[in-house]
Amino acid sequence: MSVQDGGWRTGLKDATAHISLGARGQVREWARGLLDLLLPPMAHDSREATASAGLSPDAWSRVAFLEAPVCDGCGAAFEYDGGDFASDRCVACQVQPYAFARARAACVYDEASRGLILKFKHGDQQQFAPLFARWIARSAADVLAEADAVVPVPLHRSRLLARRFNQAAEIARPLARTAGLDYLPDALIRATPTDSQGGKSARGRRLNVKKAFAVTEAGRRRIKGRRVLLVDDVLTTGATAEACARVLLSAGARAVDLAVIARVRTAREPPK
Fold this sequence. Notes:
Elements: H1 3-17, H2 21-38, H3 57-62, H4 91-95, E1 103-108, H5 111-122, H6 128-139, H7 141-144, E2 149-152, H8 157-163, H9 167-179, E3 182-183, E4 188-190, H10 202-209, E5 213-215, H11 217-223, E6 227-235, H12 239-250, E7 255-263
Parallel strand pairs: 1-7, 2-3, 2-6, 6-7
Antiparallel strand pairs: 4-5
Helix pairs in contact: 6-9, 10-12
C-alpha cells in the first residue's frame, strides 16, 4: 500500500468517525425503508404484507387516531378548532387539572384499538411495542421535544414476574431511544401491590393507587430539575398517571407529562 493510499484511508476513517449520530440515524432509516420496499413487512394483525406501519389496511382504517386540536391537559380531541382565542384545555382540565402538566394519546381506546392493545398487554405479543412507540412519537412529538427523560409506569414485582414484561417499559424504551432521551426504567417503582384497576370507579381507582408508587434514590438524582415524560398504555381516568406524577414531582422533577397509546373517550367528563 502506498503512502498516498494510507493517507486517503486515514482521512476517510477520520471523516467517518465524525459523522453525527443524527446522520447515522438517517442512514439507518433509509436502509430500513429500502428493506421494507424490497421485503414488505407482515402486518401484526394478519398474514398480508403491509405498508401501513405494521397493520393491515383494514385494521389501520378502523383505528381512531387523535389529531390536533386536542386538549393540552388530557389529550381529548376537540370537536373543532376554535382558533387563536380558544382555550387549549377542556372545561374539566380548566376546573380540575391533573398533576401531570400535559397529556397526549395516539388514538381512542375503542373496539378497533382495544384488541391490539390487549394482545400486546396480556397476549405476550411484544412485536406491537415498536409500533405503539411510533404512534406515540407522532402524537406526542411536541411533548417529546421538551422532555429530558422518559419513565414508564412500573408494575409491582409480583405482577412483573407473572406477566414477564412491563408493557409500558416496552413502549418507553424504543420511544426514548428514537428521541435521544434518557430512559429511566428504575426511577419509579410500584412499592405496594394493588388490585387491578378494571371495574373500579374513578374514586376507587384513585384510592387503589394513592400510595402505590415511590421514587428510588437513584431515580431521585436523575429526575431532579428535569422534565419527565411518563409513558403508559391506556388513560382511563388518569388515576395511575396522577399518582405517578405526584411522587415524581415531590422527588424534584421540574414537570411531568404523559403519553399513552390510547385514551378512553370519557376519561374526563365536564363537571356537573
